[in-house]
Amino acid sequence: MSIDLWMEGVIVEFKEGTPCDRAMIRSVGRSEVILADISNDQVLKMSVVSLDEVYFSGDARLLAESRDFGDLKFIDLTEKEQKETNRKYRYVKKLREYGVCKITEKSAGNIIREVSLEIGEKPPHWQSVRGWYKSFEKSGNKMRGLYPKHRFKGDREPKVNLKVLEIIRSAAKRYFSSSQPSMASIYRNVEEKIIAHNLDQPHDRLRVPNYHTVKSRVLESSYQKKQKARQGVRALQAELASSESGIETTRILERIEIDHTLLDIHVLHDDHKTLLGRPNITVLIDHYSHMVLGFQLSFEKPSFASVCIACINAFLPKAGFMKSLGSEANWPAHGIPMTLVTDNGNEFWGRNFSSVADEIGSIFQYCPIRKGNYKSRVERFFGIVNSMVLDDLPGVVRKAGKCGDTYDGRQEAKITFSEFKRYFVRWLTEIYHNMPLERSGMTPNELWLESEKDFPVPVEKEMELIPILMASGTRELGKGGIRIFSMNYNSNQLKDLYRRDGPGTVTIRYNPFDIGYILVRDEVNKTFLKIECENFEYASRLSTFEHDKIRALAKTIGKSKLDNLDLQKARVQLSK
After folding, report:
1. In whole angstroms, what is the distance from residue 514 CA to residue 214 CA?
2. Fewest 10 Å CB contacts: which of 57, 224, 263, 345?
3. Which positions fall inside the Integrase catalytic domain (predicted)?
4. Angle at the Cα of 566 (from 565 to 572), degrees rounded to 5?
5. To 5 degrees, how large is the angle CA 118–CA 124–CA 126?
6. How far apart are CA 449 and CA 333, in angstroms?
7. CA-to-CA distance for 243 and 192, rounded, in angstroms?
8. What is the DSSP string of 174-240?
9. Are strands 267-268 and 275-277 parallel, antiparallel or unpaired?
10. Strand runs (DSSP E) across 346-503, as ranges?
11. How far apart are CA 546 and CA 499, in angstroms?
């Protein structure tokens, strides 16, 4: 009885105001019910037995069961109900004006006819008017006593046979399971059980309900129970969790969130205008100000390298970066974070990244598994990018069913990678950072600059920070310098190193997204030397990904030339 009586989301009203006036049932256990006082949200606990006793003694009632209007006001009624209420009130008001309080045909008949003429309707029966008058007085001479009760008409008891109802509820348990059987399967199960009952007990035959009856009875349970059973507790928790993580910060750089996503847009090669594909973006965002601290765009899969290059962009001042893009916009964000929050991607595990965090002095914190709202800022930012940046650009990726059958984002792509990068930075610095936030009304720029007054951010030395965050390796130093990426790197400084130490293995640092230069460690002076590529014009700002694609294309073209028929004939003649 209690399991059916006490359901989540139902409000219980206590007659004596103990333990409170009204409380909503939050959860129901086998022996205990959790309630929340609707006036102050205070959590209350009552055993199922004691709650049953209070209810059946008449000291508590379920508002959902009552046939009154609860807290509904006149304005909450439908237009038809309001008109009917006003109509009744015209009769009651006129009777009160004449001082008639005992309604009979003799005392009220003429008054009723007078009002009906004013309204232009057939006079109601005097006994109906007497009922309206009594309801008006019973409600404390308030109009709510005249509200029409059509919505409460009908049989409140279930019309379905109780045995059939028991069979349906039993079958519903299978519906609320992680296997997620269909409603059609549940209906067949109910039908089969009723048929089996009728065969076993022909003297007590049950009528098979229709599909819609079974469905409505199965779905009587609360949404929480349905989702928990069919989708799982974690899915329900994620759904009920707000977009905010509940984590509070008080200043900039106190907490920085980092994550990647594959952007829903196709871009072209800068020079050849051929399709490159969809770039990945790695973003670091400040939890307090919502300011983007830095980012990295590339076509490689998220990796330790892409994270480190994004960190270089984030931790250093942006003046040089903005100048390289031809932008005069201000981007004040920079600095080493106190706490760096990441997900559980492979690129964040292992000694590499944890050692980087230790070296720069940040606390490294992993996001709990399947707790996306733990990184609420960066997750929300990705949603804003999709809706405000990508949706208007050519080449945007559309989900199936959200576009025409012939639409292909790859065919529509018109913007190059560099053009997209400049467009993104302009939107970021000129629009997003100047958008007022819902909670404070201040913009990310304003929050950052205001916090920086109280907590000034020191400028990091570039040549101290970059070697920590660049990829590391070893190469052989020879008289021709160092060879890596099938290219030569040399300089007068490196020749001085060779003259001093001779040939041998040296430690290098490199940026996989700009192979125009490498850093070579001078073991004697304990410092790094910047060595440029001999083909600097080609290699500057070129990524290893692009370099490998170009080499593969050049190899294919070279091979096709070697396969030329005239060239083959010439080689044969020369060999003879």
Report:
1. 65
2. 57
3. 247-452
4. 90
5. 115
6. 9
7. 45
8. HHSSTT---HHHHHHHHHHHHHHHHHH-GGG--PPPPHHHHHHHHTTS-HHHHHHHHH-HHHHHHHH
9. antiparallel
10. 363-366, 471-477, 482-484, 487-489
11. 34
- Chain-centroid distance, C-alpha 25: 28
| pLDDT value for 302 | 81
Choose among 547, 366, 543, 534: nearest CA to 471: 543
Q: How far apart are CA 291 and CA 277, in angstroms?
A: 28
Question: Angle at Cα 185 formed by Cα 181 and Cα 188, nearest 5°?
Answer: 155
- Residue 172 CA to residue 183 CA, distance in Å, equals 9
pLDDT tens column, 80-138: 878 888 888 888 888 888 888 888 888 888 888 888 888 888 888 888 888 888 888 87
User: Residue 520 has which token pair?
Assistant: 């070579």
Residue with tokens 């333990």: 19
Give the 3-state secondary structure of residue 78.
coil
User: What are the strands, taking DSSP E only, across 373-513?
Assistant: 471-477, 482-484, 487-489, 504-511
pLDDT at 575: 63
Count of Cβ atoms closer than 10 Å to residue 449 Cβ: 16
The pLDDT value given to residue 348: 55
pLDDT value, residue 517: 93
CA distances to 253, 373, 379, 383 from 368, in Å: 21, 10, 15, 21
Are 285 and 381 in contact by the 8 Å Cβ rule? The answer is yes
What's the start-to-end Cα distance of the chain, in Å? 103
Residue from 298, 263, 262, 280 nearest 545 by CA: 298
What type of residue is 569? K
Count the Cβ atoms, other than its own, within 10 Å of residue 191.
16
C-beta of residue 293 within 8 angstroms of C-beta of residue 317: no
For the segment 216-263, what is each residue's pLDDT rounded down to a tens digit? 888 776 666 666 666 665 565 555 554 445 578 899 999 999 998 999
Strands 339-342 and 363-366: parallel
Q: How far apart are CA 216 and CA 214, in angstroms?
A: 6
Contact (Cβ atoms closer than 8 angstroms) between residue 312 and residue 336? no
- List Cβ neighbours of 546 (8 Å cut-off, separation of 6 or more): none
Torsion of CA 18, 21, 24, 30, to 10 degrees: 20
Kindly give the residue spans of alpha helices, DSSP state H, lying in 100-161. 105-119, 126-138
What CA–CA distance (Å, rounded) separates 62 from 85?
Answer: 26
Helical pair 183-200 and 162-175, crossing angle rounded to 10 deg = 140
Q: Name the E strands within 254-306.
A: 256-262, 267-268, 275-277, 280-286, 292-298
User: At 488, phi and psi to the nearest 5?
Assistant: -100, 140
- Let me know: does 417 contact 328? Beta carbons within 8 Å: no
Is the backbone peptide bond immediately before 19 cis, with ω within 30 degrees of 0?
A: yes
- 249: Cβ contacts below 8 Å, ≥ 6 apart: 255, 287, 288
